[in-house]
Design brief:
Blueprint lengths: L1 E6 L12 E4 L3 E3 L10 H5 L3 E3 L5 H4 L2 H11 L3 E5 L1 H11 L12 E2 L2 E2 L1 E5 L6 E3 L2 E8 L5 E7 L5 E4 L7 H5 L6 E5 L7 H6 L5 H15 L4 E5 L6 H15 L3 E3 L4 E4 L1
Parallel strand pairs: 3-4, 4-5, 5-8, 12-13, 13-14, 14-15
Antiparallel strand pairs: 1-2, 1-16, 2-3, 6-7, 9-10, 10-11, 11-12
The structure holds zinc ion (ZN) (2 copies).
One zinc ion binds next to loops.
């Protein structure tokens, strides 16, 4: 399984993008940079989209992505909770602002085919098996463990805060992609917004290790660029203490799972 990190930051500039992952060039997770980070041909090759939650930095590009698919006469399946679909339709696709791709824009021919997701049950999505996992954040959020036909497993947690390790432990990934938004000095601030610092990431990984007996390779995204150097230095210390590999994701990074 090949995973491309399209967007790895909690920021958007000409160099940095909001979170999107792309598995084998056809299964996308989150839409923070689903249009801005991919060519038109790459967007049209996406067969399914999984959304973790409705925050702006994870759904922002749905409007542009949907419009590009509409231009090409294509549709795509978007897997998310009813709540995420409702919030995106109401806020992002509201009448007079943009088109609602969950219902149109052509009557009876939506660009986004909504597939309802709930935690617990495994979904067949294309050739993948997808396990949605509840994680603690400020709004209901699902992480996804994606398993390919060869049995390789990646877990992307989405945004999550302190205590998430016990939630991850229902999965058994070879690679864990999670977030680390703020440095340890801002742990309380991060927790108030449902995010991790290196200190709370270390606690989460220790909890996962206690429950599962191993640590997967860890890749961290959703970095706040104002604190990235500090976060990187602290993650190096966490990896040494736990004896695991923690890589810092970046735009364009390719991972083999
Ligand atoms: Zn969020
Ligand atoms: Zn976010």
């Amino acid at each position: 399984m090949q995973v491309r990190i399209v967007g790895a930051h909690q920021a958007e500039t000409s160099q940095l993008r909001f979170t999107t992952l792309l598995i084998d060039e056809r299964l996308a997770i989150d839409a923070g940079s689903l249009a801005s980070g991919l060519s038109l041909a790459e967007q049209l090759a996406v067969e399914n989209v999984l959304l973790t939650h409705q925050h702006w930095d994870h759904v922002k590009d749905l409007g542009a992505f949907g419009y590009n698919l509409f231009g090409a006469g294509q549709a795509v399946t978007v897997c998310c909770t009813d709540e995420v679909r409702e919030v995106v339709s109401r806020q992002l696709f509201s009448s007079g602002f943009w088109m609602d791709f969950f219902t149109g824009p052509l009557v009876g021919r939506p660009v986004f085919l909504h597939r309802k997701v709930a935690p617990g049950g495994v979904l067949a999505v294309g050739e993948y098996r997808v396990l949605p996992i509840t994680v603690p954040h400020t709004v209901p959020t699902l992480g996804y463990q994606v398993t390919d036909a060869a049995g390789r497993r990646v877990l992307y947690s989405g945004d999550n805060g302190p205590g998430c390790g016990a939630y991850w432990a229902v999965a058994e990934p070879h690679v864990l992609i999670t977030e680390c938004t703020m440095p340890t000095a801002m742990t309380e601030d991060a927790a108030a917004h449902g995010h991790l610092s290196p200190a709370t990431l270390e606690e989460a990984l220790a909890a996962f290790l206690r429950q599962r007996g191993y640590l997967p390779r860890v890749v961290v995204v959703h970095l706040n660029p104002f604190h990235e150097d500090q976060i990187r230095a602290e993650l190096g210390d966490v990896a040494r203490r736990l004896g695991c590999v923690i890589d810092v994701g970046r735009e364009g990074m390719a991972l083999t799972v």
